[in-house]
Amino acid sequence: MRSLLIRPLALGSLVVTQCVFLLTAPPLSGQAIEGTIQGAARSEEVGGPISFAFVRLLPVNGDTATIRKVVTGDAGHFSFARVPAADYRLELLRIGYRPVVSSVLRVKQGETLQHEFRVASQRFQLPTVTVVAAGKCVGPADVAADSPLGEIWNEARKGVDIRRAFELQYRFARTFRQNAVLRLRVGGARPNVRVDTLLHEPDSVTVRERRRLAGFAREGYARGNLLTLPDERQLFDDQFLRDHCLDPAIRKVDGVLGLAFRPARPERGRIRIEGTIWVDSTSYLMRRLDVEWLDGNRRIGDAVVDYTDMPVGGSALRLPVGGRAALYRITGPMSLAVRSASATFTHEYHDFARVQ
Fold first, then answer.
1. If we measure between CA atoms, which residue out of 136, 106, 122, 145 comes closest to residue 50?
2. Do 58 and 80 meet the contact criterion of CB atoms below 8 Å apart?
3. Residue 67, class by beta-carbon neighbours within 10 Å (0-12 exposed, 13-18 middle, 19+ buried)?
4. What local confidence, expressed as pLDDT, does residue 356 receive?
5. Contacts 24+ apart (CB under 8 A), 241-244
6. Which of 45, 68, 250, 330 counts the highest number of beta carbons within 10 A?
7. Higher pLDDT, 25 or 335
8. How far is CA 122 from CA 42, 98, 166, 216, 258, in A?
9. For residue 255, how far is the Cα from the chain centroid?
10. pTM for the whole thing?
11. Cα–Cα distance between 226 and 285 in angstroms, integer?
12. 144, 150 in Cβ contact below 8 A?
């Protein structure tokens, strides 16, 4: 959910913004025979609701084009409306719980089916660390084959899917505050404060994300003094692992696991990134993202983004809440007046409203 913009030309401001995820499928329309599936997800041990679990509606006939996805609300409820009459299964995924697939549900015209998931908790135990050759970096095939790394990577992707589905179903506001400092070659430091409030609308998620992905493919992670920071969805995307590789040595520090990444190959004329994705050692939800920008072998900037659970209704969702960023080297005409820039930033979320 992040972009890092460093624009010394515009009052020397360092701008860090957040973007959002997408996970959706085309709505099923034009069907004359439809029904509804409603349900809830509850913990098998205590009976309480499982909020923000990822639920997929899977046609038994295997038609992947008609798979639909929702996320449970803070009370654990979910609903699929206007479902064409056919046979389906429901699949529930939630970090910290065992994956569950329902028995076959037959949707009939005008009927509403009810289904309740009772889900057992699950804690992944990290296997014994395997000694690997120094400097080794693994790509998609090796990540899938590496048991500890693959397990953590796949569990963390569940959290990304939940976040994507959430942002396609909820409207909310985000207030961004940034305190930047531009370090001039003459005249000392120049402060700049920026506050913006943005309204997140679910129907704009897909367009923004496609535009963002196209920008990465076309321009890489920087243009001049403009640095771009990928979000979780991009970090855990298959395309990211085709362009980057992971260090198989998993780091464990103070209850968090670190997955280090770096470019898989050099790219002439493009700014690259490397860093570490930090996730909780028990829930595998994002805790922190560390990123450095590289121009060849020279580091030109870095950023840290922190995450925490934010209250949404009667539950909580893991969201980025702030961090810091720095640009060590200014390029272009502004380099004559500016040596470097840095900033701290925070995000506040409010006015959550479910719209789907």
1. 122
2. no
3. middle
4. 66
5. 241/139, 241/140, 241/143, 242/139, 242/140, 244/273, 244/274
6. 330
7. 335
8. 14, 5, 22, 36, 21
9. 20
10. 0.78
11. 29
12. yes
